[in-house]
Amino acid sequence: MTAVSSTNSTARRRRSFRPSPLLLTFVLVPFVVESIWVFWPAIQGVFFSFTRWDGLSAPAPVGFDNYVELAGDPVFRGALGNTVLWLLLFGGLSVIGGFGMALALQRERRGVGIYRAALFLPVVFSLVVTALVWRVFYQPDGLVDQVLTAVGLEHLIRPWLADPETAFYAVIIPSLWRQIGYIMVLYLAGLKAVDPAVHEAAKVDGANSWQRLWHVTVPQLKGVNAVILSVIVIDSLRSFDIVWSLTRGGPYHSSELLSTYMYSAAFQSLRLGYGSAIAVVIFLLALVVIIGYLVRAFREES
Amino acid sequence: MSDFDPSRRRLLGLGLAGLGALGAGPLLSACASSAGTGSTPTGGGITLQSNLTGAAKSGLEKLVADFNKLGKGTATLNTVATEIYRTQLPTYLSSANPPDLYTWYSGSVANAYSRKNLLLDVSDVWQGLGEYTPAMRNVSTDETGKQIFVPMNNYWWGFFYRKSNFAKWGVQPPKTWAEFLTLCQTLKSKGIPPIGIGLGDTPWVASAWFDYLNIRVNGAPFHRELLAGKQRFDDPKVKAVFAKWSEALPYFDPKGKAYPFQEATTALLAGKTGMFLIGTFLADATAKDVVEDLDFFQFPIIDPAVPVAEEAPTDGLFASAKTANPAATKALLTYAASVEAQEAYVANSSGIILPAHPKAKASDMPLVAKGKAMLAGAAELTQFFNRDSSDALQPTADTALTRFIDKPDQIDAILAEWQKNAEKVFKG
Lengths: 302, 428
Known about the structure:
Distance between the termini of chain A: 16 Å
Membrane topology (chain A): Multi-pass membrane protein
Number of strands of chain B: 12
Radius of gyration of chain B: 22 Å
Pfam families (chain B): SBP_bac_1 (PF01547)
Number of helices of chain A: 14
InterPro entries (chain B): Bact_solute-bd_prot1, SBP, TAT_signal
Distance between the termini of chain B: 39 Å
Number of domains of chain B: 2
Number of domains of chain A: 1
Protein name (chain B): ABC transporter substrate-binding protein
Shape of chain B: globular
Largest sheet of chain B: 6 strands, mixed
CATH architecture of the largest domain in chain B: 3-Layer(aba) Sandwich
CATH class of chain A: Mainly Alpha
CATH architecture of chain A: Orthogonal Bundle
Largest sheet of chain A: 2 strands, antiparallel
Shape of chain A: globular
Oligomer: heterodimer
Keywords (chain A): Cell membrane, Membrane, Transmembrane, Transmembrane helix, Transport
Number of strands of chain A: 2
Radius of gyration of chain A: 25 Å
Structural class of chain B: alpha/beta
């Protein structure tokens, strides 16, 4: 933007200081809606986290008791550990898988659309439907067991979702199955924006395909990577539906995430104050990651 | 970025938004009841909020239709899915303009709401219910001595099996714990997993084992005190319960951990397991001709010195203390408690249930007669883990019991943790 045009626009803005009613509507209506259904409940949630509340009687203030209890709660620690592990596995593998798929399917070839659509299809399904399908795979004598039997590995068969050793991983697989397609689409869009001229130049300079990928393509995907990072962090922290519909955090908390533990504490054990405290922790975790990202992004821009 | 699945956006920070949903709850329930409450004090419509689906729903529809013909009020039925109902019930009851009547459980669950003054005192309805058994009156009475609940029906739990399969395997239903273990041994030697169970998604089914072993080993009074927080889960008496359970544990169907009780029922009916400790609701989704092949035996006696108690969950109705039309609400409760209404209800709901009124006729199936006789012969009745304690205590049992079934050698750690978790629930 040149200096001339910027002074012009400032002058114009100053002249018509009063915003149009249409603009006001577009800003205020969503703000009011968000306030009622997002901001106000969020503030209430923080308030409830300092109370003991069963949902029936008036909430009784207990100060930091809920947070003190959280610190000593082994189930909470397990859920926190699982959430971090989930973030690493779910995030890491979906980036590797999604990027790999995008590279494999970026070139326009006959039939490539079918493959892209097939990989993207799981994203279209509701996670609860995904969970139902995978539950059938995992059930005793289900597809997984049949395949293992067919290849002579029947000694590995176990109740996948009911065994505390495997339940967590058995839940991660369906969520990856879905997330990889999503990440692939984001990378496909990112790869479209990579300047082919730079590739040509690198080729002329004698860079091999690995060098071109690493030194030409990847740096140009920086913008997409930032988006994907935030998508993954947010998706990991809010992962709930798939875990809840497959294992409900069980057996005995082995696949518990912070989100599922919060739900069961609040709505099953009816300890809404304690559940709110967990919710606040989730919120803070998300906030730390997002602020960390924003700070970095702003620093780079300036 | 979340264009693909906008609904998930609301799950962001699910706690905060989710807790917020509670705030919106009263609005929703107010909508649900707006058709019912209000208007004139007599003759105004009342709303019956129900979680009953399938066969039981048609029974309730019939009840409401018959009541409306009496001209003592106009009731409308509003059915909500059970899982939502369970979580929303506190919100319904504490809202400013609540539905008038609710299907739910008697005993400590109703008592807990009564303690918060949310339930209508229906003692005057009970004055006309002199024929009901003292046991029914007890589970309908709160701790201050007033009645707050009107029972519609109860049912029983037992070891269900197929008569044809037992005949094929050449085995007899056992009476004592020793005979029971022998039966398990025999079935196992024939290659049949003796005891079916379904804990995947329905882990609460394991509580039936705990309840029954506890009332057989320690007796119903101890069981009730334990569930009310007056005894400890790490008590040696509780550990003795698990010692008995360990004797039967090798005979459990290993696949039972992975599938829900519905599939465990299918496995039982297909002869893939020998027997299944379950409530009569297993017959709800079972073909008629198969139900005729079903039979059950009472949970075996372990200590003959302990008075025999049976699990008989009682279902029925309670009313909101804030109902705008107590006259019509009580009229419906009075009607629901009558012989005529209960017979129609039982006849219209195809499930295996027993009417609460002692004079109302149950279905004439031999199975039903046997169940009725078993309950009548019991010295004491309990209901079920969550109904004798609270829905909030149930998850602590689910965790402890599924872990025990997996790792019976960790019993001391399991019971210590159970006690700790239970204390948190009792503390609130």
